[in-house]
Design brief:
Elements: H1 6-9, E1 20-26, H2 41-53, E2 57-61, H3 65-75, E3 81-84, H4 93-96, E4 99-103, E5 108-115, H5 118-121, H6 127-138, E6 160-167, E7 174-175, E8 180-183, H7 185-188, H8 199-210, E9 214-217, E10 236-240, E11 243-248, H9 257-268, E12 279-284, E13 290-291, E14 294-295, E15 304-306, E16 309-314, H10 318-331, E17 336-341, E18 356-360
Length: 363
């Protein structure tokens, strides 16, 4: 561990649309996450992995021993996939995995390890998820290549990992790669995550850890049923510097409508790290859908960018499904748009961005 911060050394967090070396994903095994529907989740996960493996390497955390065996069996014939014997509690690697950094001038990989407490201690146990970031970093070298941790010797420079004192999840963070960070107060500046931090101290930690210059607190937005306390990756996403997609309700009588409208207005009053006003593109959410009496937090903002593609969650409502595909095709014209059915996956209260973590390419 370095005593200097990543920003002091020269590391920075790049945008998701930059070229990837790999994607990290966790194999599902926690049946309680998808009550009554778990049998449908491994096939969807395999579909996502197969799609990703066509454009970049995929690292899969296999989970406990039985899950690890099932993952290896399901994925053994897919090229470009490595299954790791890393134990997990659940699949949401976006939130508990490392936030990868690059050092542009020296061409090496780094990572931030946040404290993970399962969204304010909402779920237990979460000890394996909290440890997964360290397990991933132990096996990576500074060029982003994986070796068994016991095989990394003195001739191989290990990835530089920086352990933050901040309790934070990756889904709470969004960057344009040019110094602007989007986040929400409700998911970071809370009594269950960082009770002894001021907002100014949190901003300073983001700047130290991620190399950003300006933090925009995008507050007001809310999706009913979202157990993350309004992660930004469900609400607002950069498509390029200065341009964001923002979730809005598809009808005025949706209970989410006033919250998303408030967020939309707040974005109009913001400027990025280079003092540019944001261009804001509305992205409608599907109509309300309940699971066991609870609203599902469905949002097309939970798409994932990989090399040359966009994986877009589909929720079984054709009007908004098709509209989201059209908007993403317009804003990512050089990428193939890959729609994948998330109507079962979302029963776990997250979609494909929540279940992936990008590892940027070096150089």
């Amino acid at each position: 561990m370095s005593l200097k911060s990543p920003a002091e050394i020269g590391f920075t967090w790049v945008a998701e649309w930059e070229r990837h070396e790999a994607t990290w994903i966790s194999w599902p095994h926690n049946e309680s996450t998808w009550p009554g529907r778990f049998h449908r989740i491994p096939p969807v996960t395999e579909q996502v992995i197969r799609t990703l493996a066509e454009v970049e390497h995929v690292h899969v955390l296999g989970g406990p021993s039985q899950s690890l065996s099932l993952a290896r069996k399901a994925l053994e014939t897919i090229p470009n996939v490595t299954v790791h014997p890393i134990v997990t509690n659940d699949v949401w690697i976006r939130d508990y995995g490392p936030t990868f950094l690059i050092h542009p001038s020296e061409g090496r990989l780094g990572a931030v390890q946040w404290i993970f407490n399962a969204w304010g201690n909402k779920y237990n146990p979460h000890d394996s998820d909290a440890n997964a970031s360290s397990e991933i970093c132990r096996g990576l070298d500074s060029q982003g290549h994986w070796s068994d941790p016991s095989d990394i010797g003195s001739s191989t420079r290990a990835i530089e990992a920086f352990r933050s004192r901040l309790t934070c999840e990756g889904g709470a963070l969004e960057t344009d790669g040019q110094g602007t960070l989007l986040t929400t107060s409700s998911a970071v500046y809370t009594g269950t995550r960082n009770p002894n931090w001021s907002r100014k101290e949190i901003e300073a930690e983001f700047k130290r850890m991620l190399g950003v210059r300006k933090v925009l607190w995008v507050d007001g937005g809310e999706l009913a049923g979202d157990d993350t306390d309004s992660h930004i990756d469900q609400l607002v996403r950069f498509t390029r510097p200065g341009v964001v997609l923002a979730a809005i309700a598809s009808s005025a009588d949706d209970s989410n409508a006033p919250h998303l409208a408030k967020q939309f207005q707040a974005l109009h009053e913001m400027t990025d790290a280079d003092d540019r006003p944001l261009e804001i593109i509305p992205l409608q959410t599907p109509p309300p859908r309940l699971a066991q009496g609870r609203r599902l937090p469905e949002s097309y903002c939970n798409y994932y960018l990989a090399n040359g593609i966009v994986i877009v969650p589909q929720f079984g409502y054709r009007i908004t499904d098709d509209a989201a595909i059209g908007i993403l095709r317009e804003h990512y014209p050089d990428r193939d748009i890959i729609p994948i059915d998330a109507s079962d996956f979302i029963w776990g209260l997250g979609a494909f961005h929540c279940a992936t973590q990008q590892q940027p390419a070096i150089g």
